[in-house]
Amino acid sequence: MTNAANARTLRNHVASLETMTRLVLATLALASGVYTYLGVRSLLDGSATMVFFAAVIYSVSVSVGMYGFWTYMIRFLPELREGASRLSMLAMMALGSLMIIAMSSWLNAAALAGSAAVEQHLAVTLQGYTEDLDQANSNAIGALSLVPDIQRAAERFNRLAEDERTSGALTGTTGSGSVVQLLSQMSAQMRELEATISASRESVQTLFEQGQAHLATMRGLVSAPGAIAERSDDFAKESVALAGVIASLERTSIAPSVARAAADLSAGFIAPVADGSTTDLAGRQDAVIATVRASVAQQSTALAAAAEEIMAQPKVEERRYVPLTSAEAVIRYWDQFIPSWAGAISIDLLPAALVGIMAVVYSAIRRSEETMTDVDRLSAGDVLRALEIQDSLLAKARARAELAASDAAARTEPAPEQEARPAPPENVTPLTLNERKRSET
Q: Do 360 and 260 share a structural domain?
């Protein structure tokens, strides 16, 4: 195919696709306007009528602006030939594309994935509340881990008291003396501490079950069908109740009380007076009591250290659920909805591909036309019209020539009153009119 035919074919295709191009631009602008309406409607507050008209006006403005912008781009950019002009127009197209994304694309994404983004926000918040409840429950029941140690200490003191009572294992003398009383006292204190810690188990379990019930309700709201706005409101109510349960669990921890009780074991140790009947027995009792004091101090230090370790665990930070609109949720969790963002932006910026296609086509047309002669630039229609014009000019020229010839012939013909009379016969002398009159007289 020659360059002339190629250029002519491309121009014919461009002309035939002009209506299709307008239809594509109008359809994309309409689609963007519809999704923009759905997105902006979720951001407005007020009466239903005001929200409707405000959203319609905004979406219509977006549609008209997009259609006009891309129409200008597809008309002017392909026709530009200078590099500076093209770069300037490309810069304008990039700026306009950013404006379109700012005023329309994020609203389109909100319409496409707004409900899913809000559900994602609910799910993330639910996960955070679940971790908070587990942490608060762990802090509350942390002191329960000390119960086995306290039980062993109580059993040891009780066993030593029994051994001393029955066999005199510590002082060498059987009976219920001051040593037995001291050991029994220490065993009783350990039992009381154990009972205090165990009593907190039931209240902690009750609060934890309440928190789990709130979490179950919140999980149902995340995945339940229906309007996301209503589910978000119900989710907020459950989150407030759950936050109260978590705070109660934080206050239920028995670890501070255990730390204080452990300190009291050593600081409040009251040794009984040796009641041995002999000096030797009283001395042995004092030695055992000193040993018990050291053992109690060691046990107190261990319990206090364990309680401090429990109290040193991270506290649960106060969490507050913040409802998000669909547009805000789409922006916050954009990385979770990349396909929706891609679709929303493609609706608005697809005409840029058409602009690029037209620019490539016009560049090909110009390259083909640069090597064309004047004859190559003429189409069959142009030749036919030229022949018609030539025939018309020739006809006019012939008409003028015939008119000029007729005018010249008219000027050379004699006038009617001066027509020549017939020649007189030979040997006859022609007479004038006066002579004829005289002869007649």
A: no
Tell me: do 299 and 161 sit in the same domain.
yes
d(CA 232, CA 149): 47
The residue range of the domain holding 71 is 3-79+337-370
Q: What is residue 63's predicted lDDT score, i.e. its pLDDT?
A: 93
pTM over 0.85? The answer is: no
| One domain for residues 272 and 217 | yes
CB burial string 157-189: b at 16+ within 10 A, e below: bbebbeebbeebbbbebeeebbbbebbbbbbeb
pLDDT single digits (tens) 251-277: 777 777 777 776 766 555 555 545 555
Q: What is the pLDDT of residues 327-348, one digit of tens each?
A: 888 888 888 888 889 888 989 9
pLDDT of 428: 47
Q: Are residues 22 and 159 in the same domain?
A: no
Structure tokens at 389: 């014009």
The span from the CA of 252 to the CA of 140, in Å, is 6
In a domain, 92, yes or no: no
Does 141 share its domain with 13? no
Q: Are residues 157 and 280 in the same domain?
A: yes
283 and 363, same structural domain? Answer: no
- Binned at pLDDT 50, 70 and 90, residue 308 comes out as confident
What is the DSSP code string of 171-228? Answer: TS--SS-HHHHHHHHHHHHHHHHHHHHHHHHHHHHHHHHHHHHHHHHHHHHHH--S-H
405 burial (CB, 10 Å; 0-12 / 13-18 / 19+) is exposed
| 33: its two tokens | 């306007």
Question: Which residue, 257, 291, 324, sits at the end of a domain?
Answer: 324
- The number of distinct structural domains making up the chain is 2
**Average pLDDT, stretch 40-58?**
86
The region of weakest confidence among 40-44, 213-217, 220-224, 338-342 is: 40-44
Return the SS3 of 335.
helix
Please indicate, yes or no, if residue 400 is contained in any of the structural domains. no
In a domain, 258, yes or no: yes
Q: How long a stretch of residues is the chain?
A: 441
